[in-house]
Amino acid sequence: MGNQSSQRYATLSGARELCPPVGWRTAHSLSSAHPKPAASAIAKDDEAMLVASAKAGDASAFEELVNRYEGKIFRLAMNITQNREDAEDVMQDAFLKAFAHLREFQGDSRFYTWLVRITVNEALMKLRKRRPNQISLDEPVESEEDLLPREIKDWGPTPEQQFAQSELHTVLSNVISQLNPAFRIVFLLRDIEELSTEETAQLLGLSVPAVKSRLLRARLKLRQKLDNYFQRSRSN
Amino acid sequence: MNCRGVVRELSDYLDSELDAHARGELERHLANCIDCRLVVDTTRKTIQIFCNSEPVPLPEDVRARLHKALEKRLRQQPT
What would the pLDDT profile of A121-151 be if each residue is shown by its tens digit? Predict the structure, then answer.
């Protein structure tokens, strides 16, 4: 069992390998089994062409970029602000700012990553302005004991496929909204928007060890919350 | 490595950021600990479920207001 288990779990490492690239995900359904890097490369090239056209003054190219990313940017803004009106303002301001500063975008990252940075800055500004005393991005003090998983159960191969897409969206939105904002924003940037640890640290003004610590806690807390949900659904 | 060690190193393991020695120790522990295997497996699935989920389409009223604001701005050239 030892060797077999080792081999099996050797393939588990590498969350980046586990998450298909963003460009690919936008064009394929959740049920697709394996990412296709070639398709991602095409999506990236396509994005670069749209950005170049938009920079040259082609408004329809910029509109295409907006159409492509508006859903993801609104979700990110909602997940950070937890308020629909604020999220709408943040999304609008982010796209308008991106358009106004398009010529400053040098292409050293993906356009989408640049847009995520703008959105996060807008969302954090909105939070500070609207609710200066209510939202803290300071890490709550927790012991190592709080990290340890309890009542560990198997989920089966694909627990998410038990749910309709709309129900799964509600579940994910609920569990992520229950996370402390300090953990939530790190999880959003690292695991959903796929920023690097360093990019996340820079954007949030945190150290790399702080980002790693928050990410671990966020992942474990979300695991526990999904576990509760999947076990409850299974017993109903 | 014990179970606490696995939890402590879990993120770095999933992100392929553990050095070969620590990774070997962790995988030796996993080979003999079903609870830790389940924690690794369900944490990996947690990340996958979130990162594979597509955003819901933008609500129509929100989308209309966004495109109206953009339309106004797009008539001007980028600054």
Answer: 999 999 888 766 665 666 666 766 677 777 7
Q: Which residues 83-112 of A are in CB contact (within 8 Å) with B?
A: 84, 88, 91-92, 95-96, 99-103
DSSP codes joined into one string, chain A: -HHHHHHHHHTT--HHHHS--HHHHTTS-TT--S--HHHHHHHHHHHHHHHHHHHTT-HHHHHHHHHHHHHHHHHHHHHHH--HHHHHHHHHHHHHHHHHTGGG--SSS-HHHHHHHHHHHHHHHHHHHH-TTT---SPPP--GGGGS--S-----S-GGGGS-HHHHHHHHHHHHHTS-HHHHHHHIIIIIS---HHHHHHHHT--HHHHHHHHHHHHHHHHHHHHHHHHHHHH-
Does the pTM surpass 0.90? The reply is no
What interface predicted TM-score (ipTM) does this complex get?
0.89
Instruction: Enumerate the residues of chain B whose CB falls inside 8 A of the CB of residue A55.
Output: 78
